[in-house]
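User: Please run a holo structure prediction.
Assistant: Happy to. Please share the sequence and the ligand.
User: Here you go; the ligand is iron/sulfur cluster.
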Amino acid sequence: MSTWPIYPLRGGVHPAQNKTLSNQVPIQQAPLPKQLIVPLLQHLGSSTEALVSVGDHVLKGQLIADSSNRISAAVHAPSSGTVSFIGPQPYPHASGQLLDAIVIDTDGLDTWCELEPLADFTQATATELLDKVSQAGISGLGGAGFPTAIKLSPRAEQPITTLIINGTECEPYITADDTLMREKAAQLMLGIDIVVQMLQPKNVLIAIEDNKPESISAVRSALGSRDYQVVELPTIYPSGGERQLIQILMGQEVPANKLPAELGILCQNVGTIVAVHDAVIKGQPLISRITTLTGQALAKPMNVECLIGTPVADLLEFAGLQEAQLGRLIAGGPMMGFTLTSTAAPIIKTSNCILAATTAELPPPAPAMPCIRCGDCAEVCPASLLPQQLHFYALGEDHEQLQANNLFDCIECGACAYVCPSSIPLVQYYRVAKADIREQEQKLIKAEHAKERFEFRQERLRLEDERKEAERKARAERLAKSKAEQAKKAAQAEAAGGSAAVADDELKRLKIAASMASVALRKAQKQFDTHGTDELKAQIDQLSVAAAQAKAALDKASAATPAAKPVADDEIKRLKIAASMASVALRKAQKQLDEHGTDELKAQVEQLTANAAEAKQALDSAMTAAPKTAAPATADTPTKPEPSPAELALKKAKIDVAMKRAALRKAERSEADAETLTALQAELTQAEQGLAKLN
Ligand code: SF4
Ligand code: SF4
């Protein structure tokens, strides 16, 4: 007998146990299903992402999904076969929602991938052991499914002094842990040894309810010389809740906002510990578990060792489901479980029981009546809550009061609903309220993030504006300084030379100005030729004056410039090539404009016209500055004669016709009205007649 003192559980109930239904036969091996549905999320925390694709062949134990998020657990192929689908599949959840899963068509060979067991775990460091647990994708098998590697991670500032191995299994009907302790006590002991080596706790307590005498005996026999304490607990529901078990064993209440680890206590389910054993000693990932198949609608209730991903329907068939007898199908036990909406849903890492109950066994709940304030619910609540108050606030969706009354301390054990004379489904109200509050919190977090992003963007834009303004000022200052220096140099040159010699830069600027004025004049002339308005005429007059002035300024500056250095032959050659290329590009664009007549092409042609004029101007200047002794043009390099005015007029008329035709086509494509089309057609006809005359 254990000498460890225990404390009475606050509250609690004694529902009918019904455990003998399933624990009379040894654990059975479930047949290999044809298809395995392996959900990407089977634990508390972040979902994993598939690492395989449809069509891939996988081996048993192969890693098939993982997550970069720390709070997650890897997923492995439970058997060998081919991935046939990745996407939404039925999932064992109260909402009946679908969840992404990897579907594997098994090949019947059950071929393992290469495993890497640790030869001697006693020689391994805590980190090496933790890596093994993490790689095996173990999450708590007792119900909640928290990733085990995270729970076992050592905290330097808070060492674990007490390790509690939870074998209470207080929920009625379920006997998965009971049969596991009976049949795998040796593995359980080695698994505890591994965790002890990792955490070095002072005390190790193995808690088992006194309604499992065979398990207590098997575990005690397997103890050997170990100084672990097997603690028998009185059978009461829900003694197996983590915080309730700590209260029973340690007499300590874990505050609502703290974790047991912060008090130096760590709880692990017996099934989880055996999974740790398999991961370290055998190198096997978590790909199967023991699940209770029970209820009076089954011909052969039992515990099965089944692969994760096995469809519930396969297991029910194996246990001899008598469909006519089935009243309710529950995933989990009758107190904390939920109605399973589809038998296509698979077994996942947290599936400890499938209960196929008859109507006589689990009658439908009576219609809910108003609360009579009897207080029975508060009497049995193991978390010292006021269930009737929580129900009242949940009805009014008063989230503030729900949180003030510690809704999140509720472990959803269902003891309150079990005793309620008004048959109020209290736990359902709490689950909905919790989900609502979590959703609100998520929304608040999202809104906060959005606000932060907005403020960050505003700050970034402000800094950007400041930077641009500073750059603009610096540019203006540099320009002013440069102008002042140029003026100073010009004055100095004038004073020194008697006659003004204009800097090369100034000459260049004047050349560009003269070229641009000339291009602008030609463009305006072209528009005037097409449209012939008074404004265009006035514009041409102005541009003519401006072009003449620009040319005069250039001539004057050229005359004042000392004799230009003879331009090298190479430079002339380069300028000729540049002028030729500019001319070719212009002709090409003009051709495209003639064919398609888009606004972009028109703009492009204008730009290229300016470029070509500039290139020609540069070439002319270079030729002028070239030594007179330069070799004259030879027969090999004939000079192209300038086009006559008649040729120019003909070319212009052709362009005009092409543009008018393109404008008409464009209007037709955009389904312009008949009036516009008629006007454009008339313009085209006129242009064609003009061209015919010139021809
Ligand atoms: S379900 Fe919640 S409120 Fe009801 S008894 Fe259990 S812990 Fe208390
Ligand atoms: S047990 Fe039911 S009826 Fe009684 S106080 Fe609680 S909620 Fe109300």
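Residues 499-562 form one domain.
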